[in-house]
Each structure stands twice: as structure tokens, then as C-alpha cells.
Design goal:
The complex is a heterodimer. Helices cover 24% and strands 36% of the residues of chain A. By secondary structure, chain A is α+β, with helices and mostly antiparallel strands. Chain B has a five-stranded antiparallel sheet with strand order 1-3-4-5-2. Chain B is elongated. Chain B has a single domain, classed as Hotdog Thioesterase (Thiol Ester Dehydrase, Chain A, Roll). The chains are: A alpha+beta, B alpha+beta.
């Protein structure tokens, strides 16, 4: 059951916080087929100038999609989704991981869908550039 | 080296059909802390198919891309319908644009993802940044 019907332009959607650990990245590498070692090896990540292992950009975008599913009342409502991968999410080698926060604001409610502007941050800094989506009931 | 200028406008052969199973979707959902209970796939799942098409582009020796110099700069999806269990998906990648900014090639790609009947499921737009030797 979609919860999109009651939304209006300017509405703030409930903030979602997701924790990302090294184990999640390993799991995502297997599930997505993206085995780039900068997502699991500190040695390779630091050799290309990164501070350490970073999350796949697509992992972060998947978290944005997860928030959209939550707001829409279930999967299958996203008809457009996009972002720039502007800043890496650095994932420490510990049991705690790092938090990614997804916020959303309804930009427009039109016949062809609900336009949502997202803000995806880690440690208070935006990690996706211009993340946006369209949801349809 | 930089990427061959003739790359712009080139369309690569479709990828082999990728059969979407319940287990694949469950694995993908679990990796992002979610669950899959049937029905529509997670929205970013088609990247699995599009990534196959992008890999063909990046590994084609005639293109001149060094894999370790590639950064995924931007991604966008436009869906006709959600992916569901049982779909057999292929991706056909076209290089939409090619430009150079301060020694890096910016490659705009579009992968059309279609089902076994040839019907459009979604389009995955990826911008890849390929850093030159000196960048």
C-alpha cells in the first residue's frame, strides 16, 4: 500500500540512518559483482590516494533507494533515481561502522509522480551530489 | 593515453541474458540492510546488469580505457517498470557523449535494459571519469 497519496510539496520525509560496515561492503561486492579492491582492501585504497576503504557509490545510492522505499510504503514506486558520487563514504575497519543519513523533501506533486529532493550525508558532509528521485503510486 | 574520439555514438553488443532469481534479489537486498519479500526488486538492482555492459566497454582493448583509472562519477535510472523475479535481462550500452576536462575523459553512457520479450525495463545512465596518465 503506497503512502504517497498524502504528500504535498514542501513536506519533509522522516530521516533515515543506516550503518555501513566492512562486512556490508563485502556482501555488496558479491551481490553486485563489483569487486573493485578499493571497496575491501586498505592497501589498494591508500595506494590510489584514498584515506582507506570506501563504500561503492552504488552502495550509497542503494541506501537512498531504501529510504525512498520506506517513504513510499514499499518497493516498486521509484520511477527515476539519480545522483553524482561527489564524496566517498570512508568505512572504518571496526565493528561499529559508519552512519549514512538520508533526508528527503517533497519538491513537487505532479500527475506523473512525486518529485523528491534528497540529502545524503556521512559525518555531516554530503556524499551524493544532487540526489533526486521521482516516486509513483 | 586518452580514449579514442570515435567512441562517442558507439553501441556495444547486448550482454548475455541475466536471469533474476529470488535468491539474487534477497542477496542484493540483504547487502544494503534490507529484505526481499517478493514483488519489485530494489531500485538500484539493475546496476548488476548495467555493470556487465560497462565492464565490456572498459575491457574492450580498442577503447583504450585503463580500468584502475576509472571512477564512477554519476548514475541515474529511469524505469518503465520495476525488475521482478523471473526476468531475463540484457543491457545494451551506447556511449552518448565523450569530452575531456583537465586531462580526464568524461564518458557518458546509456544502458538500455530490456526483458526476454525485448520490452524496455529501465535505462541506466552512467558517467565514467577516466583519468589520464598525468591527471
Amino acid at each position: 500500500m503506497s503512502t504517497l497519496a498524502g504528500l504535498a510539496a514542501g513536506d519533509t520525509l522522516p530521516e533515515q540512518t543506516y550503518t555501513v560496515t566492512r562486512a556490508d561492503l563485502v556482501r555488496y561486492a558479491g551481490a553486485s559483482g563489483d569487486f573493485n579492491p578499493i571497496h575491501w582492501s586498505d592497501r589498494v585504497a591508500t595506494s590510489v590516494g584514498l584515506p582507506g576503504v570506501i563504500a561503492h557509490g552504488m552502495y550509497t545510492l542503494a541506501l537512498a533507494a531504501r529510504a525512498l522505499d520506506t517513504w513510499a510504503g514499499g518497493p516498486g514506486h521509484v520511477v527515476e533515481l539519480g545522483a553524482k558520487f561527489s564524496k566517498p563514504v570512508i568505512v572504518p575497519d571496526d565493528d561499529r561502522g559508519v552512519d549514512v543519513v538520508v533526508r528527503g523533501t517533497v519538491k513537487e506533486v505532479a500527475d506523473d509522480g512525486v518529485r523528491v529532493t534528497l540529502e545524503v550525508t556521512c559525518g555531516g558532509e554530503k556524499v551524493l551530489g544532487m540526489p533526486r528521485a521521482v516516486l509513483r503510486a | 593515453m586518452t580514449v579514442d574520439a570515435s567512441l562517442a555514438g558507439r553501441t556495444f553488443p547486448p550482454t548475455e541474458p541475466y536471469v533474476v532469481t529470488h535468491e539474487r534479489l534477497a542477496e542484493f537486498a540483504r547487502a544494503t540492510g534490507s529484505t526481499y519479500d517478493g514483488g519489485a526488486a530494489p531500485a538500484t538492482f539493475p546496476i548488476v546488469v548495467a555493470f556487465g555492459a560497462m565492464t565490456s566497454l572498459m575491457e574492450d582493448p580498442s577503447v583504450g580505457i585503463s580500468l584502475h583509472r576509472v571512477v564512477h562519477a554519476e548514475q541515474r535510472f529511469a524505469y518503465t517498470r520495476p525488475v521482478v523475479e523471473g526476468d531475463a535481462l540484457t543491457a545494451t550500452l551506447t556511449v552518448d557523449s565523450l569530452r575531456q576536462i583537465s586531462g580526464a575523459d568524461i564518458i557518458g553512457t546509456r544502458s538500455e535494459v530490456t526483458d526476454a520479450a525485448g520490452q524496455h525495463v529501465c535505462t541506466a545512465f552512467a558517467t565514467l571519469m577516466h583519468r589520464g596518465e598525468d591527471a
